[in-house]
Amino acid sequence: MDINYELYKVFFHVASTLSFSEASKLLFISQSAVSQSIKTLERKLDQTLFIRSTKRVQLTPEGEILLRHIEPAMHLIQRGEAQLLDAATTGGQIRIGASDTICRYFLVPYLERFHRSFPNAHIKVINQTSVKCAELLENGQVDLIVVNYPNTSLSNVSAIHSIKTFHDVFIAGSAFKNLKDEKFTLKELSHYPILMLDKNSTTNEFLHRLFQQHQLDLVPEIELTSNDLLIDLARIGLGIAFLPDYCIAGNMTGLFIVDTKEELPERELVIAYNEQMPLSKAVQEFLSYFAP
């Protein structure tokens, strides 16, 4: 049944106040307009909703049934409107997709800055690999993502901006001290146990592609989802870990960088979002932190 929302709105105010005159004041319309709306609604529903007398207005049993359904719906609509109005002043909500490593070693200062500027805005961070983050963005589950690049999953993303360049490094602990202060080829390193992120990461894709370019097979000893855990395992001597250099600053106690004869290609951190979707005030503010 196609009934105008305004008719239910009038009904709700009359039923809540049990007064046509009070409802007209709340709705900023004439009392006759209120009466006409109720008559129209009753005609469309083929039910009498109010018992009218000179002294009072009373709901019929049918009117009470309708109110039980209309009242929670009206409150939901009012709450939604209030949240939208609040979002216009506080910045609303921002949903960010990023890996644990990027959040910890790169995003925290920006999140802190944003929180200070918009203390009432809701920040939602979803931790996934850079590959999975691209899926979150494509499905509309996040407003923006901060990910490692190149990233083959970003082919359908319309806006990608570089915000930081970095290099990947091999690190090892004292168990491999014979590698310290020397340079080794990737072929030589392939004979050592390699610790790296799992197949759902761009870092894994990058290292496998790098080895393939040098006609080498890469068979990792261990694949994990955490760079921090890779650092811990390298420190206790389980192998040589491969990871971005931005996550080892201040975390190299008992570790050293294993230099390679081949120069490893530079990679980037990028921020990506969908230009076809409207951006909230919160998202626009956050993106401004990375403007060139």
Assembly level: single chain
Give Rg in angstroms. 30 Å
Structural class: alpha/beta
User: What is the overall shape?
Assistant: rod-shaped
Low-confidence stretches: none
**Roughly what fraction of the amino acids lie in strands?**
15-25%
Query: How much helix, percentage-wise, in residues?
Result: 40-55%
Q: Which H/E pattern describes the elements? A: HHHEEHEHEHEEEEHEHEHEEEH
Strand order of the largest sheet: 8-12-7-11-9-10
Largest sheet: 6 strands, mixed
Q: Would you tell me the overall average pLDDT?
A: 90
For the terminal residues, how far apart are their CA atoms?
54 Å
Total beta-strand segments = 13
Organism: Faecalicatena acetigenes
Family: Belongs to the LysR transcriptional regulatory family.
Domain HTH lysR-type: 1-60
Protein name: LysR family transcriptional regulator
List keywords for this structure.
single chain; 292 residues; alpha/beta; 6-stranded mixed sheet; 5-stranded mixed sheet; 10 helices; 43% helix
Describe this structure in words.
This is LysR family transcriptional regulator. Residues 1-60 form the HTH lysR-type domain. There is one protein chain. By secondary structure, this protein is an alpha/beta fold. The chain is built from 10 helices and 13 strands. Strands 8-12-7-11-9-10 form a 6-stranded mixed β-sheet, with helices on both faces. A hairpin with a 4-residue loop joins strand 1 and strand 2 (57-59). Helix 1 (5-17) crosses helix 4 (61-90). The longest helix has 30 residues, at 61-90. The model has no long low-confidence stretch (mean pLDDT 90).
How are the elements arranged and paired?
Elements: H1 5-17, H2 20-27, H3 31-45, E1 50-52, E2 57-59, H4 61-90, E3 93-98, H5 100-117, E4 122-127, H6 130-138, E5 144-149, E6 159-166, E7 168-173, E8 183-184, H7 186-189, E9 194-197, H8 202-213, E10 222-224, H9 227-235, E11 240-244, E12 255-260, E13 267-273, H10 281-288
Parallel strand pairs: 3-4, 3-5, 8-12, 9-10, 9-11
Antiparallel strand pairs: 1-2, 5-13, 6-13, 7-11, 7-12
Helix pairs in contact: 1-2, 1-3, 1-4, 2-3
